[in-house]
Amino acid sequence: MSLFDLFFYLFAIAIVASAAVVCFSRNIVHAAFSLLFTFFGIAGIYVLLSADFLAVSQILIYVGGILVLIVFGVMLTHRATNISIRSALGPRIPALIICAGLLALLISILVPGHWIRYDEQPWKFSPWHVNAIEQVTSATQGTPREIIDQSGSQGTSAELGKLLLSDYMLPFELLSIVLLVALIGAAMMARKEARQESVREKLQEEIAL
Amino acid sequence: MTIVPIGLPHFLVLSAVLLVLGIFTMLTRRNAIAVLMGIELILNAANINFVAFTRYGGINLGGQVVAIFVIVIAACEAAVALAIVLNLYRRQGSVNVREAHKLRG
């Protein structure tokens, strides 16, 4: 078993165990904190899949942003956390049957699938660096360090930036607008009611004038 | 039993397990914030699929770009959903999604 396999199983066990805690824990605070380990494990999986930029943004956005938001939500609604957060056993059985059936279906589809194997050994090279690898292996002059520098296989950030500003330009710009609208909308909705009342009164005064 | 080297199916099965756990969380929880956590699990499962297919079959990084888009959408969704949950809590005094039926006709 190689180091790659070892780390994959380590991260996979961490992800599944902490996701199960999210799923089955009675305490909402425990669920929120075990979500932290799920997100870190997924960042590790991204590293194994040689997605360096995505692993860092996973930690920054999910752990630093979304999880903090969720913990804030848990704290702001803390009086509601004392009540039982689980459904009764009755509604859980259909859910369990649906989920078990879905899992069995997905695994029966995924496991024997004839996937194209780009390379049997990860870490050797990444598919998007095929040209770079060919350059490196066919080069005859220069030290290895120079050849690798010239081939430009320096992680995924540069390539992602190029794609975001060329092929995916329109979705990128639309998404920035969606983000802006969502953040302003969330701030508006989370405000106190009293503020809306005063705005309404001011509007009525203006109409009266 | 022979040990299969880690490949695409391993990552896909991991993401399938994560998806099913997220769906189960969404179906069985009453707390709106716990339902939100289930949605986050599902989005992460989708992301693992995107990145795994990019790694094992892609010719460029398109899958990773889409994964970044999914992360941004998840951030938007978390912000808006928590604002909704706070309003729900303010109006009905609890975050139980089974009690939120005032708009039902």
Q: Which features would summarize this protein structure in a list?
A:
A: 209 residues, mainly alpha, Four Helix Bundle (Hemerythrin (Met), subunit A), extended, B: 105 residues, 3 helices
Distance between the termini of chain B: 58 Å
In total, the number of domains of chain B comes to: 1
Q: Largest beta sheet of chain A, briefly?
A: none
Strand content of chain A: under 5%
Rg on CA atoms of chain A, Å:
25 Å
Instruction: Write down the overall geometry of chain B.
Output: elongated
State the CATH architecture of chain B: Orthogonal Bundle
CATH architecture of the domain at 1-82 in chain A: Up-down Bundle
Report helical residue fraction of chain A: over 70%
Mean pLDDT of chain B: 86
- What is the CATH T-level topology of chain B? Helix Hairpins
Q: Helix share of residues of chain B?
A: over 70%
Largest interface: A-B, 91 and 74 residues
Largest sheet of chain B: none
